[in-house]
Amino acid sequence: MNDLVITESGQQLMARMIAGTSTATFTKIQSSDHDYSGATLESLTSLTDVKQESLVSKVERTDTTQVEVMAALDNRLVETGYYVKALGLFAKDSDNVEILYAVSIDTTNPDYMPAYGGKTVTGISYRLNTKVDVSSQVTIEVNPAATPTIEQVDAIDRKIDTHAGLSIYGENGVHGFRYYNDTLQVYNTETEEWVDIETGGGGVSPSNVSDLSVKTGNTKLTIKWSDPGDTIIEGQTICTWGGTKLVMKAGAFPESVKDGQVLVDNKVLDAYKTNGFEVNGLTNGTTYYFQLFPYADTGAVNNNVANRITGTPQAFRTMTVTIDKTNSNPATCCSYADDAVGMTAGSSDWDDFIGQTPVLLDSSGNELGNLKVSDYSKFEDGTSAPITTVGNDVMVKFPKRGLKISTSGNTVSISMTDNPDAESEGFKYYAHSYGANNNCDDIYVGAYKAYVSSSKLYSSSGKTPTGNQTIGTFRTQANARGTGYEQMTFYVRTFLIAAYLLKYKHLNSQVAVGRGYVDGNSAPTTTGQTNTKGMDWGEGTGKYQCKCLGIEDLWGNINEWIDGIFSNSTRNILTKTTNNSMNDTGSGYTDQGQGATADIGNYMNEVQGTTEKGFVAKSVSGSATTYFCDSGHLFASMLACGGGYYGYGDSAGVFFCTVAYSASNASASVGGRLIKFKVAS
Q1: I want to staple 4 with a disulfide (CB 3.0 to 4.6 A). Which of 67, 91, 102, 497 is the partner?
Q2: To which H or E segment does residue 641 belong?
Q3: How far apart are CA 212 and CA 228, in angstroms?
């Protein structure tokens, strides 16, 4: 640092010392990375961009007009490295008023304070000689909490005349040092732990890794990360990255490179950024602990806990139901395959796999708590849940599941996996996608048909569902709730149909679950009438709402718009996952190919049968009691709604989807349903 420049406040204190009206006590130093080049240092009363502060550790009178002030800084609390471009010395007068006494700057060759890597502490000691004119007026008083300088530590002369016969080698060591398990360690009295002394490497360690993630598999885990590379600040290379070691330990995180199993010593920058490092031969259900240790070419190691991650391997399941297209009997045409073999249709065991949970969200989309399955008006602990309050939303949460739908010959196969990363096996996560690269861990589906209040869409109990609005109006009202909110989308609806098929193994949902509110009714009924009916309920009169997968009126009561699908002029099916960019024309959508060569509409006997086109009608030669038992339509240049409404009778059901509505359509029989994507922050 350059010579100290005494500030105007310091000069005033010096004048009072000369006059004998005050004394001075030097208290602390502050460091800053602010560039004070060209500034008038005398006018400063404080420092800008203060990075650190330390108490004065020693004051000595060097002559009658000067004193030497010593203080030290270290990087134990430094998260980001910086250059010490300015140093401020503070003092208190006789009235205990603290001032900035003097300032020293260095913008040509400033000291560098590196970030703390985890264990190796870097420190800088300062000897500041400052003019006071009357050194006898300076109080020689040092706070015992001050950090000693290197010179003070070096000056300590301790004569050890006990334990002369003991050795540093072994588990016990001597005087807080030991060489044990091929490692030199020092005993930390605060944590009561032995800490490795990093030998063979000095200087600055690399920064932390980034993009750290773990992918779970069957008896394996895959760790991905980006290496930190070299540390370059203001054009100067402070640290050259030498490599990164991945260390695994059972039961707890590794404390050092030697505390666990070194799985890989990577010296190729970002070698495991894309495909990751696969750890095989693990035990399913056991949690494994990992830490990455980036190190410099000098050997300095980054031990920061930010480089830690855990993983628990597990055996994922793939549940499959197949449909024999040649069998028109909706009860016998379906069969279980893969891990679904042995499962019972309609069993609550399916809920464990699908994972749906009723929850209450507040107006900002935060979970207020899980709702009681047997009574949505209560939380799980039995306390009352405000489900009729407009602003709160009663939703059913579905965790991330992969879906694969394919048709081969006369067989349609619908497979779902609880593996969140099974793209390589052909599974897609369209229902849990919000934008091109934002896969969500959870989606929330409104438990009720949508209700509009103050031009916003809600899922509230005890409300009459809103109708008579266009698909665009419902879309705007859903998006008005904030990021992640939409009305029902094509791929979420497809996901729900697939979940129904797996659970019930039956193509007639009105028989398998319940007829729904569909017969002889002239208007929609209020929401929440199935709150005490469990997760699935129905009956056969057509006068009561049904409930499936925890969702009321998955079919019946009022149709709901389905966004994210458009049939163009040649009946090519255009689709989109969501990020608030749905529209009425299919602009920006993906063309999934032609669905029909002419407008079709009737009871479906065949669906499109692919992951991308789902259960949209392909052929309509069925009936109310054969094949899919629901109506379907595919018209040119049209949008979609689904489920069926209060007077739709046999045509309604989980498969009902009519791609036959224009953007201007607004009908009392068509409403909406709110959904929310749990968007990663």
Answers
A1: 102
A2: strand 638-642
A3: 11
